[in-house]
What does this fold into?
Amino acid sequence: MKAKRLMNSISGFALPVLFGVVIAALWQTEVLHSWMGTDTITLPLPTRIGEIISSNWDTIMGHVKITVTVALGGLMFGSILGYGIAIIATVFSKWGAGGLTIVSAFNAIPLVALAPVINNWTRDLSGDVSVRSTIAKILVVTISCTAAMSVNAFRGLTELKPFSEDLMKSYAAKRITVFTKLRLPNSIPYIFTALRVSVPASVIGALVTEYFAEETVGVGRQIRENIVKGQYPTAWAYIAIACAIGIIMYVILMIAEKLILKRRKSRG
Amino acid sequence: MKQTKRKTLLAAVAAILVCAQLTACGGTTAATTTAAATTTAAETTTAGGESADTTAEATDAPEAAGMMSNEEIIKAAAADGKVGNWGLGNEYEIQALLTKYELPTDYITMDFTMDQFDSDSVTLASAMTYNELGLVKNSYDGGYGYGDTVGIIDMNDEGVAMLEDNLFCSKAFAEQNPNTVKAFVSASMKGWAYACANPEEAAEIVFEAGSSVSADHQAYMASEVAKLVTTDMNGNSVSAEKVGNMDEEAMQQTLDLAKKYIILEDAAAKDKLAAMTLDDIRSTAYMTYDPETDGAPEKTAVSVQLKWLPQAQFMGYYVAKAKGYYDEVGLDVTIVSGGGDISETTAVYNGTVDFGVTWVSNLINANAGGMELLEVAQVYQRSGLVLVYKNDLFKK
It folds into this structure.
C-alpha cells in the first residue's frame, strides 16, 4: 500500500519534471531547433532567457506586479459576481438556469473583442491613465471569470445529497437555514472546480487585455512590444515569466484546495 | 469683440496664421517642384478663406491669434499625461521630442483610430501626415472633419525626425541574389518616381489593387506620401532620379536618435546597438541595375511585405507592378500586405518574404536583436510623423 502510494507520487511528480528536463536539454543543445526548423534568435536558448530575466529582475517584477494585480482583481470580482449570480439563480429557481445560460453566453465573447470595447467605455472614468487603464483591464478579466463560477456554484448550491433537503424540511428549517447549513457548505468543492478554470483564465485574460490597454505596461504587453520590435530573447523572457505566473497561481490554488477540503472532510 | 471691424481684422490675422502653419506643415515649402508648389498655394488659399469664415462665425478670433508655442503645447499636454502614440517601435521620435523639452517619455497608447483624439483623452496625438492627419482634418468617409481647427507639431521642424518607410531584405539574400535586389530596387524606385509625379493615378492603382481605405482618402494619402518622398528633412526637394536615395546625414540622425531612445533589456542586443554604424544597416550597392553588365536576376519570383494594409503609403510598389516595371526587369512580384502585429522584420528574417518595407528604427531594433537585415533603398526622405492638437485646447 505504502509502496503503491510512493509510486503514484513519483509518477505524478517526477515524470512531468523529467519531461521538462528532457525538453530543456533538447532546447539548450539546439536539437529542438533543428526539429522545428527554427534558429536561436526566434527561439533563444534557455540560458540566454535566464540571463535576461536575472539582469532585468526589477523591471520584470514591476510588470509582474501590474499583471498579477489585474489577474487577481478580476478573479476576485468575477468570482464574487459569479457566486452572487448563482445565489440569485438558486433563489429564483424558475428562471435561474436560463439566466445562467445568458451569463455563459457572455463568457463566449472572445477577449480580443471585449478588451477594446471596454477600453472605450472606461476612457472617461478617470483623468489618470493608469487608474482607468487598470479598471478597464480588471473589468475584462472579471467578465472572463464570472461564468465559470456562476455555473459551478449553481450546481453546488442546487445538487444536494439525496434526501438532505427533505431532511431539513422535516426539521421545519427555514429557507435561510437550509441555505447556510446545507447549500453553502455543499458548494465549496464546486468553488474550487470553478477556480481551477478561472485562475488560468484570469492570467490569460490579464495578459491579453494588456495588448489593448492605454498604458504600455504589464507582462503581456511586453511580450507583444518585444515581438513586434524583433527582440525575441526579451519577448521569451516575458513569456517564461507569464508561464511562471500561471503555474504559481495554480499551485497556490491546489494547496489551498487540499488544505480546505481536507479540513472539511475530517470535520464532517 | 463687439466691434465688427475689429472682429474682421482679427479673423484676417487668424487666417494668415493658419496659412503660415499650413505651409509649414504640408511638408512642401517654396523649394519644391513647380507643380507641387502651385497645389500648395491653391490649397492654402482655400483653407485660409474657409478658416476666416469659421473664425468669424465662432467669434473667438482673439484666442485663435493667441496660440501657445509648440514648446508650451507639448509641456501642457505632457503635464496632463495626454501625449499619444501607438508604441510598437513608432514611439522613438515622440520620446526624443519629449526629452528635448526635458519631459518624461511616457505616452498613452493609441489604438489605430483617432477616437481618443476626438474624445480628448489624448490631446496631443501622433498622426502620420498621409493617414491619420487626413482623417482628422477631412470630412470624407471615415474622417473626423476638424478642418483647420487643428494644428500640428512636425518632427522635421523639431529636429527629432527619424527616417521611416524604406526597402530592405536580409543580408544573406542580398549576397546570394545581388541582381534580383538591384532589379527589384530599380523597378520599385521607378514606380515610386512615377507615383510621385502622378499621385492621382497612383491612388487609383492602389485603390483597385485592394485598398483598405476609401478612394478619397487614398487620393489624399498619395499626395501627402509624394511630399515625403520628394522632400528631405530640411524641406529641400529631391529629384526624381534620387528617389530612394539614402541621405547620409538623415540616416545618421536616425541612427543616433535610435541609439538614444531604443531601450533594450537584452544586454547582448544593447551592446550591438551601441556599436552599430550605418554600414551595419544599409548598403547603397543595389541602387542601380543594368541587365547588360549585371546579368539576369538570380531569383525571379519575389515577394515584398508591406508594413501596413494596402494603401497609398506603398503606392510605388503597386505602380511598379501595375505599370509592368517589374516585368521589364524579369521579376514576378507578389505584394504581401501587413497590418496589426505582423512584424515585417521577422517575415523577411525567417524567409517568409524576400523584401520588406519598414521604418529605419525598426530595422535598427531588429539588427540589434540579431537579425541580419540590410536596407537597400530609403523611400521616405523625411519624417511623416506629426503631433496633432485641437487649437482651442491650447490657447493662451
Notes: The CA atoms of residues 140 and 382 of chain B lie 27 Å apart.
